[in-house]
């Protein structure tokens, strides 16, 4: 039988060539094969404890992330206290919607988190439902006891400590089994969770499932214990000295603050020592980031993973005459780093939009291709990460219950460190407005007064004050889409 040669028209040949060429070009531009496209992106979230932006100059790996990814320079937390802030991060909801305002007691800690049902509606439960392996390693919530409490819903892998602040002599709940660690160099907690995180990445890649890994360090929270190799670093480092440091005139401040005496030489020396310890303690965190990135590259997942770096709250060191601490509405405490790199994120970009930790859960859900939960008070940041616009916020909300008096709370502060009464505050791109339960107010025009030195609340016009109060009241009672 004679086989006829197949005849192609010039147009058909061109169509085939162009079609195949476009397909190949598309794959090359996206930096992934068709098989990789089918796998949703992975997420690694490194959450530090009490880290202020003034530590970033001591973290070269985070600086490298900034060069390769996007930095959000107007990122705020909903409370400058560990447990309320972390609860917001897990749930995407404000404290007034989670019922978690403190680290312990009826309105705080792990107990309140569970009592109010928050454990059943987090980014972990959402991503696990989307087929992700999900892991939390390090710190969870204040009040969690690894010996008494189990693995919460949503987590496929769990290695969590209770009192891990000293970095030694702690216990981890490892998927329900309590494992004790000692005081040898190999037991240093930041290194332990770094190694466990790398093992989790390898296991997830082998299982061919996308993964969400949160590595939650206790550093640089006090006592800010450094790894052995870092103990003698930065011998001459000092806390930054702005005009807010040991502020000259405090007469315009609220009563809880204006009675502070000027810092003594001994207090200043202690502040500088605290700063050095904090800088040393984050060196292991910085190395952890390098090791995570190396593992991702070795596993072929470096181009299919979003790496997120942040902190649960900031920290003050001498500003406004305050000794080391947090819990205030000043930028030192509520404004923290947020750095993201990953697929489609422009290198070296800075985003100045108002964003908040209510936005992290919906961002993770957007990355996973999952519909954002209706219960969320924030909005996802994926459009920003990919260079797209979206509706801007008018302001962000900060809610705090105080003063903090629980004797067993690792974040309890005395008056010198700053222990403000209950307040609610709004922060927009150029203003901070605070209302205290005492009836006192603070207002700072940050265009003229970026260091928050001059409280001009008493000089506000009736119209301006009414506008600020209306916005604060709107956010204090908002829920879901009302908060956006």
UniProtKB/TrEMBL annotation:
Signal peptide extent: 1-23
InterPro entries: Alkaline_phosphatase_core_sf (IPR017850), GlcNAc_6-SO4ase (IPR012251), Sulfatase_N (IPR000917)
Pfam families found in the cross-reference section: Sulfatase
Basic and acidic residues bias locations: 228-247
Positions of modified residues (3-oxoalanine (Cys)): 82
Gene Ontology biological process terms from the UniProt entry: glycosaminoglycan metabolic process
Region feature Disordered, mapped onto this chain: 222-247, 401-423
The keyword Ribosomal protein is annotated on this UniProt entry: no
Keywords carried by this UniProt record: Signal
Coiled coil: none
Record-annotated Sulfatase N-terminal domain positions: 41-369
Posttranslational modification: The conversion to 3-oxoalanine (also known as C-formylglycine, FGly), of a serine or cysteine residue in prokaryotes and of a cysteine residue in eukaryotes, is critical for catalytic activity.
GO molecular function, one term: N-acetylglucosamine-6-sulfatase activity
Superkingdom, taxonomy of origin: Bacteria
PANTHER family recorded: N-ACETYLGLUCOSAMINE-6-SULFATASE FAMILY MEMBER, SD21168P
UniProt-recorded name of the protein: Sulfatase
Organism: Actinomadura barringtoniae
